[in-house]
């Protein structure tokens, strides 16, 4: 059984459309979804949005909570998230001037999928680490 026919066999028809057509349409949707997923799916975007889901934060607070991010990477990620409507930047009337970032309703709509991804990472991270170690051992044995 080919992979495609295996997928077809496991899939249930969606509405009255044939399953094959649904799969073809899903592959076409990759073109539409890829740019969006590239914007929200990188590691810093996910982590920044996770931080901002709990409460608004200033730049340095976000940086402290995201161990390993550089000043430049954080600044670029925040601009990208703001451009995409996922966060808002608010200038605070303080001396010196402060800036606080808050998550928008659009950004907040990612909370549930990100929480599921986070939970998956906690649950399956050790299994992935063991798989990586086994792979590396096997590769080292080939050289």
Note down, in words, how this protein is organized:
It contains seven helices and three strands. The protein has 143 residues and is mainly alpha-helical. The chain has one domain: Orthogonal Bundle (Arc Repressor Mutant, subunit A), CATH 1.10.10.10. The chain is extended, with a radius of gyration of 21 Å.
Distance between the termini: 35 Å
What class, by secondary structure content? Answer: mainly alpha
Quote the CATH topology.
Arc Repressor Mutant, subunit A
Q: Name the CATH superfamily assignment.
A: Winged helix-like DNA-binding domain superfamily/Winged helix DNA-binding domain
| Uncertain ranges | 1-14
Indicate the CATH class. Answer: Mainly Alpha
Task: Provide key terms for this protein.
143 residues; disordered N terminus; single chain; mainly alpha; extended; three-stranded antiparallel β-sheet; Arc Repressor Mutant, subunit A
Short structural description:
The protein has helices at 3-10, 19-40, 43-54, 59-65, 71-83, 105-108, 111-142, and strands at residues 57-58, 87-92, 98-103. The chain is mostly helical.
Task: Furnish the topology, listing elements before pairings.
Layout: H1 3-10, H2 19-40, H3 43-54, E1 57-58, H4 59-65, H5 71-83, E2 87-92, E3 98-103, H6 105-108, H7 111-142
Antiparallel strand pairs: 1-3, 2-3
InterPro entries: ArsR-like_HTH, HTH_HxlR, WH-like_DNA-bd_sf, WH_DNA-bd_sf
Protein name: Transcriptional regulator, HxlR family
Domain HTH hxlR-type: 31-129
């Amino acid at each position: 059984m080919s992979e495609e026919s295996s997928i077809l066999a496991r899939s249930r028809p969606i509405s009255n459309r044939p399953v094959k057509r649904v799969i073809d349409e899903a592959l076409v949707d990759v073109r539409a979804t890829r740019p969006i997923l590239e914007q929200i799916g990188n590691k810093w975007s996910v982590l920044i949005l996770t931080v901002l889901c709990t409460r608004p934060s200033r730049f340095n607070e976000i940086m402290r909570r995201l161990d390993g991010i550089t000043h430049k990477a954080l600044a670029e990620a925040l601009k990208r998230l703001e451009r995409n409507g996922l966060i808002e930047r608010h200038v605070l009337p303080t001396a010196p001037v402060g800036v606080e970032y808050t998550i928008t309703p659009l950004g907040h709509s990612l909370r549930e999928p990100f929480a599921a991804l986070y939970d998956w990472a906690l649950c399956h991270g050790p299994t992935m680490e063991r798989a990586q170690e086994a792979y590396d051992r096997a590769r080292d044995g080939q050289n």
